[in-house]
Amino acid sequence: MYSQSNCQPTLFDSHTLDNQGHNSNPNLLTSNIDEALEILKDWKDLESNLDDNLPILIGSRAAKYHLPSFRETNDWDLVVTVSQTIELLSSFIIGFIGSFQMLFYKGIGVKIHGYYKSSKKNSFTFDLDLVTNGQETIKNDDGSIVELLDIPIVTSSKLIMDMCREVDDITTIPLFGLKCRVASLEVLEALKTSHIFLPANFSKNISDLHTLRKVLQYTQKIPRTHSLFEPARDQSVANMLEIRTKETEITSEIHGQIFNRNKINDDNFSARLTVTHDELYELVKYGEQSTFKTMRNDLQNSWIDKSLFDNADYFTQLKCVKEEAMTIALKRYMIPRTCVDYEKAFCLALSHICTASINVWFRKFAVDNYPRLLSCDKDLTQIAKDIRNKCKLKKAIGDISILGQHFPDSDSFSIVEKLIQQTQEFNPPDLILPEPDDINVQFETFRYGLRIFPSNGKDNNEQKRGLECVITVVYKMYEENESKINESWWASVSVYPFKAESDDSENVDQSISDTDTPNGTDPTTNHPFDYDMINYDVEIVELEQKHILLIYSDHGSAGLGGFGDVESDSDMSPWVLTKPADQVASELGIPELNGDFLVRYIIAYLDPELPNGGDYPFRKAITTLEQKKGINMMPKQHLWFYLWWYATYFKRGDWGIS
C-alpha cells in the first residue's frame, strides 16, 4: 500500500524547524494517486465531526462563476473533506493524471496538487486543501505507523468550509458531474489578499484583487483626495484571513518566494553601477526636494518614517511611492537594460515595492492604492541613457573595492588592479524570446557583457583584440494554478577571443529579432539553449569550448523543458555544466592569469544571479559540500565561481545536484 521510502520531503534534503516550530519543508506523502486513496480511506474511518456536504470552490474559477467577465482560468481550487477527496480522486482515475502530489505542511495541513488530462484532451490543474480532524497517520502494509501528522485543529480551510456550508451558489465540475458550492466574493477577496505580497504572478493577482474590491464596492465611495484602504470585514472572514496569511508565509518561505526585506539601502541592487540610490531620487523628484528622502530619518538605509508619511497629505504620499518606484525602475531595469520600456519597468518596480518593501505598512499602502499609482509621470528613457554614459566614464575605478573582496591577498589584488584598467563593459545583443502561447507562462531575460584587452589593446583602435564575455540569464515562471508556481532558470557564461572590426559601440546594442530566431536561439551562440514556444520544450544546442559555465534549475513540476503538461516532479535536479578556461585565458598573454583566476574575475565583476531565489538550491549544495563533505572552498568567492570550480575539478564538468 504505502512504503516508507515514499515518505520523503520534497525540494530540500532534511526536516528542519523554523523559529516558530513549523516544518520548513513540505513532506511528500505520495505522488501516486492510488496510494493517496489508500491513505485517505484510513483517515475516512476516523472521521466523526465533519459533516459531508459539498466541496467549496475557491480561487479564480469561483470568481469567474460570480463575474462572467472575469479572466479565463484552467484550474479548480477546492476546499474538501477526506470523503470528498476520495470521491474526486476516484473520478480522476478514469483519465490521465499528468502530475500528482499529496503534501503535508507542518502547521498548515495536507494539500494535493495535480494536473488532469483525459483521453478527450480535456485538461485542467487541481489544487485541493484538505479539512481533517487534526492528527492523522501514515501506515505501512502491515498496519504499523510510518508517520504521525499533527494537523492544526483550526486551519483556514476549516474556517472556509464552515463559512460556506450554507451558500446557495452551486456549480458542477465538468466531465464528472460532481457538484461544489462556490465561495462568496467576500471570502474570495480575503483569499486574494492573503497572498498578494508574493512576487509570483503579482500583476495578475493585484488586478484580480482590485476587481473584486470594486465589485464589492469597497472603494466606490472613497474620494480621490483620500487613500484607498483594505475593507472592513466580518469577524469570521477576518479570522480566516489572518490564519491564511500566516499559512501563506510558511509555504512561501518553503518555496523561496520571500524577498529579504532586512537590508540597508542599495544592498538589494546590483553593484555594477556607480550611481547611488539617493542620486536617482534627485533625478526623479517632483519638486525642489525628493519627497521620499524628506520622509527618511536615516539616509543610510531605505526605511522611511511612518509618522512623517502618515502626516503628509494623500497626494504627497502617492508621489513618495512613485519616486521610489521610478528609482527602482531605473536601477533594476532601465539602466542595466533588463527592461527598456520605461512604463513596463515602472510597473515592475511598483510590483517590487508591493512584494519586497522593507516596511510592511508602506507595502500595504502601495497594494491598496495600486490603481492610483499605475501611471509613470516621467519618461525615464533619457535619464537611463545619460546614467549609462556617465557610468562608463567612472567604471575603471568604480568597482575596485568590491572586486578586492574576492581577491584578498596582495598578489591577486595587484593582478585585479591591472585587469580592471583593461576591462570595458558592453551591452550584448538582447535575447528576445517569442511570446509563449500559454498566457500563464512568463519569461524574463537578463544579459551582461565585458571585454578584457591586453595591456596595449584597450586604447588602441587598431589593436582591438582581447577576450569577450557574455552572461545570459533566462527566468521562466509558469502558474499551474493559483497556489502552485513552477519556475525555471537557465544561465550561461561564454568567454572567447575577439577582434573588433569597428569602434562603433552602438553596434552591440541592437536586439536580436524574434523573427530571425523563431525559437529564441541566440545567433551569436553565446547562450546555447533553444526555446521552442510551440512545443514548450527547451534543448541544449551544440556546446562549444567558449561555454565555460551552464546552469539550470527548476522549482515545481516542470522538467528540463517542461512548461505545462508535466509527467514528473523531479525530472531534473539543479544542474551545472562547465569547461576549463586555461586556453582562453592564455589569449591575454598575462603569465599570472590562468583559467581559474579569469573565471573568478569575470563572475565577480559582473556579479550575476538567478532572480527570485533561483540561486538557493546551488547555495545550499555548496554549503553541504563544505559542512558535510569537508570540501575546502576558497573563501569569499561568488557562488557561480564555486559552482564552476567544483563541477570542473570534482565532476568532470557535469554536475547534477541531488
TrEMBL record:
Annotated DUF7275 domain residues: 187-387
Domain named DUF7276: residues: 469-647
Record lineage: Eukaryota, Fungi, Fungi incertae sedis, Mucoromycota, Glomeromycotina
Membrane-spanning intervals of the chain: none
Biased composition (Low complexity): 514-526
Organism: Acaulospora morrowiae
Protein name: 15795_t:CDS:1
Ranges where the record places region Disordered: 1-26, 502-528
InterPro entries: DUF7275, DUF7276, DUF7277
